[in-house]
């Protein structure tokens, strides 16, 4: 079986590529390397086919030829950027997704796994939030992910391509180069005496470790491929953690004792306009239908990631000892 991964040199994509190669699949990776890094694929680069291409304007459509399943992970993940530069997210998260679906149709791909997001719910009225909750994104990023889900469902109904859309919570782990853990560690690297935190610190969200994410992704893919149609699953955790707790973990891991300043961008304490204040997904459906469940809590995922990234980024008082 030949599998294509878009964004395969990215954070999630590189772990997925490694896992699929270890399972014996023939893997093709497409990445424009705007944020992806071939160094993440160092252990498997000689066992995959790598295609450098930009899915906004694909120049190597033949990469989809002979592919059985596509994991579409390529996207711009910066929610903040989508608020100030919405055109970027339209191009990279909507246009690119349309091109992936159209090339999949043209070349007879049977299965697509689409990386969606918890941001499609916006400020959810129900926590934990089930998959049948109204879709009301408050960021262009969330709107773009919603559009991708709708297009996937349409291609399923119109062309018979099986699709599973995975609404991921915040995914963390080694190699991560965006999000709160990375941002805080980089701020401490620049100045270990001062730490500015976006928001008032009361934001609460769910986090999931990368290996749990890959397990969920593959189990949902296998489940959907055995059947037919469109499947939508939340992929998150049982618990959540607030920003102040995360800051305490980062400070403890670094060994520094900075002066901490909280900078809310909205009257209700969000980090930026379009930031979801509280997010906790219901994972009952994927547990029931697929049999997956996370092995690590949100707090454990944050702690494990903070330790790994502090070493990768060279951040910490311990480095000077």
Automatic annotation (TrEMBL):
Transmembrane segments: none annotated. Residues 3-236 form the NAD-dependent epimerase/dehydratase domain. Pfam families: Epimerase. This is UDP-glucose 4-epimerase. Belongs to the NAD(P)-dependent epimerase/dehydratase family.
């Amino acid at each position: 079986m030949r599998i294509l991964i878009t964004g395969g040199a990215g954070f999630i994509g590189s772990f997925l590529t490694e896992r699929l190669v270890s399972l014996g699949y023939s893997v093709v990776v497409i990445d424009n390397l705007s944020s992806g890094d071939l160094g993440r694929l160092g252990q498997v680069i000689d066992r995959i086919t790598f295609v450098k291409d930009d899915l906004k304007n694909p120049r190597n459509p033949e990469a989809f030829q002979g592919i059985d399943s596509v994991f579409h992970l390529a996207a711009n993940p910066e929610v903040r950027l989508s608020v100030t530069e919405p055109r970027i997210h339209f191009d990279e998260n909507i246009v690119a997704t349309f091109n992936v679906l159209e090339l999949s149709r043209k070349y007879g791909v049977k299965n697509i796994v689409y990386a969606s997001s918890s941001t499609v719910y916006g400020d959810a009225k129900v926590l934990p939030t089930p998959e049948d909750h109204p879709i009301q994104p408050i960021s262009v990023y969330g709107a773009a992910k919603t559009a991708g889900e709708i297009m996937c469902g349409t291609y399923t109904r119109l062309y018979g391509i099986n699709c599973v859309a995975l609404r991921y919570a915040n995914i963390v782990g080694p190699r991560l180069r965006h999000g709160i853990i990375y941002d805080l560690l980089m701020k401490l690297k620049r100045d270990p005496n001062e730490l500015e935190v976006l928001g008032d610190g009361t934001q609460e969200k769910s986090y999931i470790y990368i290996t749990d994410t890959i397990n969920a992704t593959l189990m949902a893919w296998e489940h959907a491929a055995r059947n037919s149609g469109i499947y939508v699953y939340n992929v998150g955790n049982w618990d959540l953690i607030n920003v102040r707790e995360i800051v305490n973990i980062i400070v403890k891991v670094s060994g520094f004792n900075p002066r901490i300043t909280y900078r809310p961008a909205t009257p209700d304490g969000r980090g930026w306009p379009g930031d979801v204040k509280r997010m906790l997904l219901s994972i009952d459906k994927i547990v029931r239908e697929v049999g997956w469940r996370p092995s690590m809590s949100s707090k454990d995922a944050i702690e494990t990631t903070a330790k790994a990234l502090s070493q990768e980024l060279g951040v910490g008082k311990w480095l000077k000892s």
